[in-house]
Design a protein that fits this description.
With 316 residues, this protein is of the alpha/beta class. It folds into 2 domains: 61 residues; 221 residues, Glycoside hydrolase/deacetylase (TIM Barrel), CATH 3.20.20.370. Helix content is 44%, strand content 10%. The N and C termini lie far apart (99 Å). Bound molecules: zinc ion. Zinc ion (ZN) binds next to loops.
Amino acid sequence: MESKQYSKRIRYLRRLILTTVAAACLIPTCICVILAIRYDRLSTKYEQSEADLAWYREKYGSEMEILSSEEEVNTDDSSFTGATTAEGMDVDYATIDVSGAQNPENIEGTRYVYLTFDDGPSTYTDDILDILAEYDVKASFFVCGKPDAKYTDLYKRIVSEGHTLGMHSYSHKYSEIYSSLESFKADLDKLRIFLYETTGVWAKFYRFPGGSSNTVTQVPVEELVDYLDSSEVTFFDWNVSAGDDYNGATKDTIYANIVNNVPKFKHCVVLMHDAADKKSTVDALPEIIEAIQGMDDTVIVPITDDTLPVQHINNN
Ligand SMILES: [Zn+2]
């Protein structure tokens, strides 16, 4: 009788211990998952706010000089494109100082349009590639370094389907890339080698995060350009922007920003983004391609060695 009670007690204790152990494992795991989700949401919001702030700084100038140089200033590619706004306002490029951008309006004949996508690969790269394939259009992708295996096939697909693979920095962290010439070099070389090992392509084209006219770099951009030159890399800015990196950008504003501005140039390098939070760009893409293909004497082509670059700074 006594031993029966004893074993009952043992069983009870064992259950108690197992429950405690299970709880000790499960509770922190749940907390971690919840915190990770919150962190992810907050960091997305943070990045968006930084980009917005940078855009306002660019637009309204030094009155908003409130970020110290220590801080991460993720302007993304919006520093130049005060030209297009979240409201999709059609801004007259003639009134904008393009700081040496080459706008060879005297080119005779065909208008060449270069669709370019920054920041990929992303969850939308496949969708973008599907659309480009559907319309038999080749584009140029200025990608970052994303070693996660889920991106490997996307890099390869960009190349195998005949698009141009360009570079847009490995880390996309302005505070790192632009802190010194050495870190710029290290970032560029890391990406170039990564892309070569992933796709077999020795990339030759570069887009500065924030463009060559970005106000973030601690190093004179001419020094960065000299390094690109010595590495036989050509950089491309843009003269038409989707404005898809602003809060409030919609399928309609993206369409309008591109389709209203392409006719102003004989040679258009169009900036768009391939990013998880830029679904509107994907939604707008088919109609953008149709509209451009419907323009007189206009072709959409990928960037090649023969492409005359659009550059915001003139390094000559
Ligand atoms: Zn970017």
